[in-house]
Amino acid sequence: MIGAVIAMQSEADILLDEMQIFRSLTVSGKKIHVGKAYGKDVAVCICGVGKVNAALGTQILISKFDAKKLLNFGVAGSLNPQTELCSVYQISAATQFDFDLVQLNGTKIGTLNEYQESYLMLNALPLDFPKRKLGTADRFNDSLDDFNLLTKELQADIRDMEGGAIVQAAFAAELPVYAIKAISDVAGSGSTTEQYLINKDKALCNLKTALATVFEYL
Q1: Whole-model pTM?
Q2: CA distance linking residue 58 with residue 138, whole number of Å
Q3: Got the DSSP string for 126-163?
Q4: Which of 34, 93, 140, 182 could potentially form a cystine with 203 if both were Cys, beta carbons 3.0 to 4.6 Å apart?
């Protein structure tokens, strides 16, 4: 069983449109749809925005639906010119840039207490989509401080609000985890909120086109 953890209904719909849904239910307040997509057994959890929601949704799929591999996809923000608007990227590594134990133990920001590095590595699929590094936090903003932290200290390419937490939960369960992101906004190019509203549908359209190839290799 593939467990797909998706933040928002609009993101999940690009997969649900292609699914034969056998049953739908609610677990711990999260909508779950179970069925087949592209010939594969899949359970989709629409977890909601943010890291706690993402981790909870991931664990539901592991504990209640016996997911053996995990997939996260959706829109995200670009942090540099090498990550282009509405293009699709495979995530190679993820960090949580609002996790900070620097003052306590001197580890680099983003380094979870049970790990030694700020980034956790994701599993890779043999896809043509370029690989990029992801920074996750519980905030959507145009903060220059966040931008500098992500680009100068952590060398992240993309930012979102769920991916890093999904990877952490997958690591705890010792399961493979994959993530695919399409770019809805670019930092430093005006309001990210306005860009997101303008570009979200096109980014999701490109991501939907990519899903058949993604599922072929899952």
Answers
A1: 0.94
A2: 17
A3: S-SSPEEEEEE-S-----HHHHHIIIIIS--SEEESSH
A4: 182
